[in-house]
Amino acid sequence: QVQLVESGGGLVQTSASLRLSCAASGLTFSSYHMGWFRQAPGKEREFVAAITTGGTYTYYTDSVKGRFTISRDNAKNTVYLQMSSLKPEDTAVYYCNRYPSLVIWGQGTQVTVSS
């Protein structure tokens, strides 16, 4: 079955950078667009970024444009989220998934940005 394993989160200060990784298995990774999502405490899970199958096109929610970069390595079945200039409002559990056709969620990786 499909398995998504996110990693790379942590506790950082405002303006720091982090790189999240998501290793996918159980699917033909290169055939699917992929996305990153996040869920802050007490809030709904929200879309953060997406990337097309070959990595040619990327999409971002307005609040992260210019700060976050999504990328993928189809040879490694892995999608990345490079986050820079982090803000306290970026604090959330971050998840990856197929996009837009979601599958079962992984455990996510916690990102905490202190002010």
Structure description:
This protein has 115 residues and is an all-beta fold. Helix content is 0%, strand content 50%. It contains no helices and ten strands. It has strands at residues 3-7, 10-13, 18-25, 34-39, 46-51, 58-60, 68-73, 78-83, 92-98, 109-114. The protein has a six-stranded mixed sheet with strand order 2-10-9-4-5-6, with no helix packed on it. The mean pLDDT is 97.
Mind sketching the topology for me?
Elements lengths: L2 E5 L2 E4 L4 E8 L8 E6 L6 E6 L6 E3 L7 E6 L4 E6 L8 E7 L10 E6 L1
Give a short account of the largest sheet: 6 strands, mixed
Spans of at least 5 consecutive residues whose pLDDT stays below 50 are none
**Element order: H for helix, E for strand:** EEEEEEEEEE
Strand order across the largest sheet: 2-10-9-4-5-6
Q: Give the overall shape, derived from the CA principal axes.
A: globular
Number of helices: 0
Helical amount: under 10%
Q: How much is the average pLDDT?
A: 97
Class computed from helices, strands and strand pairing? mainly beta
Rounded to an integer, what's the Rg over CA atoms? 13 Å
Give the termini distance in whole angstroms: 40 Å
Strand composition percent: over 45%
Number of strands: 10
